[in-house]
Amino acid sequence: MSKQINVALIGNPNTGKTSVFNALTGLNQKVGNYPGITVEKKEGICKLPRGVKAHIIDLPGTYSLNASSLDENVVIELLLNKNDKDFPDIAVVVSDVENLKRNLLLFTQIKDLEIPTVLVINMADRMNYKGISLDIPYLEKHLETKIALVSTRKNQGVDHLKDLIANYKELSVNPCIDASEIDAEYFDNLKKAFPNQLLYKLWLVITQDVNFGKTDRKEIDAIAGFKTKSESELKRLQQRETIKRYQFINNVLKKGQTIDASQAKDLRAKLDRVLTHKVWGYVIFFIILLTIFQAIYDWSSVPMDFIDSVFASLSEWTNDKLPSGAFTNLLADGIIPGLGGIVIFIPQIAFLFLFIAVLEESGYMSRVVFLMDRVMRRFGLSGKSVVPLISGTACAIPAIMATRNIESWKERLITILVTPFTTCSARLPVYLIIIALVIPDGRFLGLSFQALTLMLLYLIGFGTAVVSAYILNKILKIKSKSFFVVEMPNYKLPLIKNVALTVVEKTKAFVFGAGKIILAISIVLWFLASYGPGEDFNNAENIVKAEYASQNLSEDELHQHIASYKLEHSFIGITGRAIEPAIRPLGYDWKIGIAIVSSFAAREVFVGTLATIYSVGSDEEETIKNRMAGEVNPILGGPLFNFASGISLLLFYAFAMQCMSTLAIVKKETNSWKWPMWQLTIMSAFAYIVALIAFQVLK
Amino acid sequence: MNTIIQNILAFTVLAFAIRFLVLKFVWKPKKKTAKACGGTDGCGCH
């Protein structure tokens, strides 16, 4: 068996650790040009020269080993615990060539833990552009390490890095600085109390609440003859340590790094002045949003219509060509329409992810976070809550996990509770189909009403999240606010490869993740819609024929009435009619009621459910849109999906907590069922009330 | 004969669908190790 070594990838946020991880392992973990993408460690395997295998662990970004949030704790707890199975044989500290000074603070701390350490200077392709030159041999000598100059964008330096990792035993483990110099007497006492422990490790344990192995802060306090210092004294010592480290770093960089500002071609400052301007910043962001939603509609209508008609033809073909029977009906009326209900949205979902990926890759997303921080502060939250809220546009689950970098528990809790209001991609299919049915074609200043409605729904989602945060802030009385420092990454031309990977992976996750649930639910729904109890269902044909005997109906019309009668008396019809009184005031019929109940598993299921129910209840193979447009309100008459019921449904889905996976992740992150249950109750009740008011006012 | 085969196929598919939904939402078997999360894997995000 070949030898396997543990390699920890560590570095400041947004230095490209995950890009280095992907380059080493050949994996495609998500990367982005804004901080806070990685909140948990990720693992992969890299084959090194001489048959050595490396177990690469990509850790969340941290500015130093002085942890203040959960994601930073992940790094420190691993580095302090030699008994951890992932304890690194070698640490690879990833730094960004433009922020070397700040990045080296973490490097020196890790070196002082006497772990073999390699320094990766990433984004080396920007050195010329920024007028930076480095004396690598000098830096290697004075930092007592080996340096790999890497550009993951241009795939340069990765092989050299692999060689350095393979030869990790040759690396020096000498510390960069002697931390005990900050208070010699104190460190002497510490050494006497724990003669076998590494001093710097003890110092880290004393200065923060992290656990490692069997040694923790309380144990150190309890040792007889050793008195630790007060919090404020420890803080002062920490500051002294930081100053000492920067003195060391400055001395090294004075000769090891040259920056010729005259060669730097820097548009960044100029762009930032406009893009983060207190007026123009918001105007530009608003215009970008409008462009995105308009493009989503304009570009995807043709492929969507094509997919819709393909699925309708496929259903028809299945019915015509396969022998008649239950399985054929299940395929034609259950599985194919159900799947069509998700596949139809691939173009729009892909375009949405394309735009998000471009914004992230270009570095603009960090500017949006900065802009939003100004808004959030007025509502009592810091900008740290903005990252989860913005990532919530893709999916609430990773967004809720991203709250781990919020230090204040109450602030984190509020962010977790309000994030599901952000419009996630699962809402998109519901929005798109309802908007297409109830919002008229037409344009205002060149923008279609439909695109404007979609954008409005996104803004309503974000606005509700912010207002809810404000209310929760008052109720929960946040005293401790976490500070917010956002790193403004450089503007970059998005790499086509990264953008394409993000779009493909996210669309795949959307289609296959939701697709499996929709497929399973479609199958169950087909059975419930195709079978029923009692005489009404079993003798449907005779009952309908007798009922319409006096009318001269064509064969097709009679079949249509029979299918409709059977559906109403099927298991699903009976269930649907039982819940109908509760949803009728909102303008919905029992079929929509069933779709709402089944979409509690995942919002996207809504369209697939309706497609299956309508398919069973009809003899004609039509597109989903046409089936929905043709539905008649059984009580009020006229189209079921009209402006009033459509708006009511849109608002219901904007506010309701229709996602079991989100509830599960909230339970995991808050370690209690209390919060997800509150979230479910309040969001559902609010959604019901708003949808009710909307329908009653607009009908 | 055809009807019987069609019914067997349909109900087998139903059994698989119910099993999948139960495992997904009602009873989740414990995973041995937590691997990468937060990126493209979706972490349980459908």
Descriptive notes:
Chain A is of the alpha/beta class. Chain A has a 6-stranded mixed beta sheet, with helices on both faces. A two-stranded antiparallel sheet of chain A has the order 6-8. By secondary structure, chain B is an all-alpha fold. Chain B has one helix at 2-26. Chain B: This is FeoB-associated Cys-rich membrane protein.
Write a compact overview of the structure shown:
The complex is a heterodimer of chains A (699) and B (46). Chain A is an alpha/beta fold and 699 residues long.
What is the topological layout?
The complex is a heterodimer of chains A (699) and B (46).
Chain A lengths: L3 E8 L5 H9 L16 E6 L5 E6 L11 H11 L9 E7 L3 H12 L5 E6 L4 H4 L1 E3 L1 H8 L2 E4 L8 H9 L17 H10 L5 H9 L9 H6 L8 H26 E3 L8 H8 L4 H42 L4 H18 L2 H17 L1 H15 L7 H6 L4 H6 L7 H10 L8 H12 L4 E2 L2 E2 H28 L19 H35 L3 H5 L1 H8 L7 H14 L2 H13 L6 H9 L6 H12 L7 H7 L12 H13 L4 H11 L3 H25 L1
Parallel strand pairs in A: 1-3, 1-4, 4-5, 5-7
Antiparallel strand pairs in A: 2-3, 6-8, 9-10
Helix pairs in contact in A: 3-10, 5-10, 12-13, 12-14, 12-20, 13-21, 13-27, 14-21, 18-20, 19-20, 19-29, 20-29, 21-27, 23-24, 25-26, 26-27, 29-31, 30-31
Chain B lengths: L1 H25 L20
Low-pLDDT windows of residues of chain B = 32-46
Helix/strand class of chain B: mainly alpha
Give the biggest sheet of chain A. Answer: 6 strands, mixed
- Helix fraction of chain B, binned, reads 40-55%
Would you identify the regions of chain A where 5 or more consecutive residues have pLDDT less than 50? Answer: 210-214
Distance between the termini of chain A: 72 Å
- State the shape of chain B: rod-shaped
Average of the residue pLDDT scores of chain B: 71
Oligomer: heterodimer
Largest interface in this structure: A-B, 50 and 29 residues
- Biggest sheet strand order of chain A reads 2-3-1-4-5-7
